[in-house]
Hints:
Domain Probable transposase IS891/IS1136/IS1341: 165-279
Strand order of the largest sheet: 2-6-7-1-5-4-3
Distance between the termini: 33 Å
Domain Transposase putative helix-turn-helix: 1-45
Largest sheet: 7 strands, antiparallel
GO molecular function, one term: DNA binding
InterPro entries: Cas12f1-like_TNB, RNA-guided_DNA_endo/Transpos, Transposase, Transposase_put_HTH
Bound molecules: zinc ion
Number of helices: 10
Order of helices and strands: EHHHHEEEEEEEEHHEHHHEEEH
Helix content: 40-55%
Organism: Caldalkalibacillus thermarum (strain TA2.A1)
Radius of gyration: 24 Å
Amino acid sequence: xxxxxxxxxxxxxxxxxxxxxxxxxxxxxxxxxxxxxxIQIYEKxxxxxxxxxxxxxxxxxxxxxxxxxxxEIDSLALANAxxxxxKAFTNFFSGRAGFPKxxxxxxxxxxxxxxxxxxxxxxxxxxxxxKLKWIKIKQHRDIPPHHMIKSCTITKTKTGKYFISILTExxxxxxxxxxxxxxxxxxxxxxxxxxxxxxxxxxxxxYRQALxxxxxxxxxLSRRRKGSNRWHKQRxxxxxxxxxxxxxxxxFLHQVSRQLANRYDAVVIEDLNMKGMSQALHFGQSVHDNGxxxxxxxxxxxLAEQGKKLIKIDKWFPSSKTCSCCGRVNVSLSLSERLxxxxxxxxxxxxxxxxxxxxxxxxxxxxIA
Length: 369
Ligand SMILES: [Zn+2]
């Protein structure tokens, strides 16, 4: 079985908008209530691990008794709030994420619902959702008939647009491909990556221009008096630019990952821990903005669909300091040196040299030397 998600714009009626707002609110309410109660339970039993293990955590059913208005919305949305909180705690305990946070009214609003006994249906420019009935959808691409809808996530962006992400499941057994064409990618802060053939994945110019425009708009916002009309107007503008940039980046990442997945049988990358990396190097937001995580996710499933491979190599492998020609390690190479020079006479662009090493390491893992 394989999964694929499809994202479309939704056009709810005013009445549906009201129910959606209510659903977002209820989901947030239940999530925060459950979190609050969990925190209390942890406080109470923090010195008694056994008692903590025995203790039952709150469920949405309990709140429905205390707050009957929760029954007016899709109950699956509440069940998913519980699952999401559970996931947040699992991530926290495994060290992958910080302690779960309360959901704020200002954050992106969304909820997820599941397919149960045909409660969701797509037909003629509309989608049927639990409690909402038929809601207008702009379906710009078809979902193949052998794809079964598993769940839907409905989101309202900060600029007031509605989207639905439809997760589907389908029977898929790709035939593993013989590995002939292999490419190595070296992560690059400015251009996403440099490949082992020396090519850079440059972000399009309009994207970089939009980033500059956003920076300007943010400066204007910081000068406005907080809460004033002009501040609200500017804030909306900033939110719109953010959305536009996020969409442009996503389009670009889809494009480059598609090209790579079609062209190569295997792609080799370094297994970077972006969270650790951004903290260690004080790059802050920019590493996340660079979209490496999203890119590798796209690449992974686009390759897998075709029976191809994404190879991740150890992040401690000294890819930039090793000569890709003779294997000598140049320990004194500093970050500012853009050219790699080796005693053997080999000279190459620093990132290209790293990408060749990454490719070589991947070939080793594949058993092709
Ligand atoms: Zn050398």
